Every structure is written in structure tokens, then in C-alpha cells.
Amino acid sequence: MFISAALVFAAITVAAVNGEAVHYPPASTNINNLTYVFNGSGSPGIFDSSKTPNSKYGTYNWCNMPHVRQREYKTPPKDYTLQYVEVIQRHHKRTPYGSNTFFKEDVQWSCDGVGAVFGSTSPGTKSSPVQWQAYRDTQNPWTSIAAPGFVGSTCQFPQITSEGLEDSITHGSDLRTVYASRLGLGPKFDPKTAKIRVTNNVITSQVASGLLVGLFPQSKSDYNAALIQSSSFDSLEPTYSCRAASNLRADYTTGASGEQWKLHLSQAADLYAKLDKISGIAPDDSGWHASFDHYYDNLSAKQCHGKSLPCNLNDASLCVTQEVADTVYRLGSWEYSYQFRDAPASAKYAALRYGAWVLELKGHLQDKVDGKSKVKYIHNVAHDGSMSPLLGFLQVDQMVWPGMGSEVVFELYNSKNKEYFIRVLWGGQPMKTSTPLGTLYMVPLSDFFAYIDSMVGSANDLYTACNQ
């Protein structure tokens, strides 16, 4: 149904006057249907390969999410001219986090020659980059006490794998085929017109190193500056303190308003018991049983890299079946939909948790409109903990757990009448939201800004709300 811009603006303005983020519920699908999650079958997408056939591109692929590329890109009418692009994406595929590995794993995971590279540089001084390679020394008495995890592994947990690096390069190259000519980006990285931003987690810098090869192919041997904020206030990861956001999320998960959350954990008791028996995880280990995050990460990281699902170390007949893994994936997807979209307080949570980054985005767009910035392209490399609250802030119509390499692209256009519009792409296509803005295709920039104001207010408003 068509809704006039005036009505959209009026609806958003009412929310802004009320001073409260309005929650617009997402669509009802198998993702957020708890009955289907427990009684359905199959995975919610692709979990065993970075490759998606062209005929199925756009399908949810946890290992390598669909992104902007020339084959599927739809150029707007000639009345619109692209002025500026800002991309935010999750890093590409990696090893599991150390906290998500079993005490001792039954599969091998080697990272010989593919570890993170570090170095320093200064004017007039040459340095040699060093590459990390994990190892253990038996003379260290704590070595025998610490969990071996993946026995004999040379990996850090986490680190971007060689396959994840290849996906990063391809991602950058795909973006270049779309935006280089449209924005006039050269083959070398120019910090006057382009910016790369990372978080304090080294895996985002690993991905940035691959993206840059694809985005700016003549910058392979150069030192390219990546913007980074202090971990005490980084808006991208995000790590800035917001007590109100933490309390709100705790309330609708484990707290007084968390009936749905507690129900799904209760219904999953038998599944947890089956997984714990195979993995050796203690049933009272709260980290593994507050959500399916740990099991999801462990199983999906293995499958994305072609590794087998785990078995019990003492009884090889006890293994995680594909059916069990698929149920874990359905449950993880439900959890993300609930936390960031379905829970009525999720919109307010997202506004608090990711409002600082959105305000920075707004500032970049306004500076471009005002002629204060020559920057044409900014690329942010972040995490699922970044993408999820952003999707919650924009109130995407169907929430998923943002997979590896998932991206949101903000395109700023002006028209022949010198009016400004924004198009937001999710998975390479215009994002469908549940808000009065509808599908974010050529939305008047003033309406988009009004929506941001309705959700988060000013920088001072956000700071005050976080510390109430």
C-alpha cells in the first residue's frame, strides 16, 4: 500500500514529540515462530559453503551473506545522482571464539601461514611485519591445565581464516565494480575521498586488509590507515557505556519481562542435554545455556569450513547430527529475532545500544549535503553485535542473525531538483522495514533524519538516556 511522504513524516514526527522509540513489530515468519523452530525441519539457510549459486543469490548464507555486486545491482533512474556511500558489514568467516570451543575438540584446525600480521611504521623507518602463529610449550606448567580445545592448532580463537580472507577480497572487488565508476574512486586508496574503519578486535583489521585489495587493487603494498575509536567509547563495535541499554535487554531476556526467552530455554532442555553429552559441557555452565550462541558458533564455524560435526571423545557413536545442528541454527535465528526485533522493548534497546553510530552516520550525510566533506565512500568493518542493533534500529521487516560478511549500505542521492534522498540496501537489495518509511528506496533524506530523531534524539539526549 502506498503511503504519502507527508503521512510518513507525520507519523514519525509524533513519535519524536513523544520522545520514545516506537516499536514496529516484524513480519511473522518461520524465523520468529517458536513452534516451527522446535517442530520444523532443515536449516534457515546455507551453512556449509561460502558459495551461493547465482540463481539463488540473495538466499541467507551464514558463511558468506549476499552483498552488493554488479550482477544483481539495480541502478536508480537517471534523475538521481549518487553522491556518497557508507557501508557497514560484519567481518567474514573465522575460527570459533575460544569461549565457544569444547574443552577438547575432535577435529583438526590449522592456521599455518594464515595468522594475523602486525607491524609499526614511522617516517624514515623500515619495519618487518610479523605474523602470529599460536603454539604451546610443555615447559609452561599452565599448558597442561588449560583446555586444549583444537589439539595442536596453530590458530588464534578467533581469527579470520584463509577462506574468510578470500571472501573479504571478493567482497571488496564486488563493491568496486559497482561504486568505483559511480563515485569516481581511483585504483589506489585515497584517504581524502575514502575511509576504512575497524573495531578494536583484530579480526576486523584482518578483513579490512582483504577488502582493500579488492576495493583499491593498486594499494596492495601500501600502508593504509584504518580509523579506530578507543575501546572505552567505540560506537562501531559498540563498546560505549550504556547502562540503560544493558538493563533493558536483561529485563526482556532473563528478567521480569523475559517470559518468552525463559520459555524457549525451558523447551530446549532435552536438546541441551543431548549436546552437553556429546560436547562434555557441564549442564550448569551458564555461559553455554543462557542462549544457543556458543553451540551455534561452534557448529557453524566447523560446517562453513567443511569440517565434520563433533562427536563424543569417548563414544564415537554419539555425534551431533545434521538434524540437531539445524535445530540449533533455527533456535539461534529465533533468539536474534526476539532480542533485536520481536521484543517490544527491542526498538528502544537498539536506539540506545547503536544510537551513537547512527548519529555519526547522520553527521556524515549532513556534511555531504552541506558541502563540508569531500569523502565519497566510508567502509566500516564490524561484528554481529554491530549489525544486529543497527537492523533493530532500522526495524528491518524480517530479522535474521547477521551472517559472515553481512552488510548494510547507505546510498545518498540528489535529484535534478537538488533534493536529497537515501536508499538503504540489505543483502544487496532495498531494505524492507516495518516502519512508516516502508522499503528504504529513495526516501527523502529529511524523512530519514526525522526517523533517526524519533528513535534517538540528539547526542545529549542519547548520553542522558544511557545514564539514567
UniProtKB/TrEMBL annotation:
Keyword annotations of the record: Signal
Family matches, as Pfam families: His_Phos_2 (PF00328)
Signal peptide annotation: 1-19
Domain of life: Eukaryota
Record flagged with keyword Signal: yes
GO molecular function list: phosphatase activity
Similarity annotation: Belongs to the histidine acid phosphatase family.
Protein name, entry field: Acid phosphatase
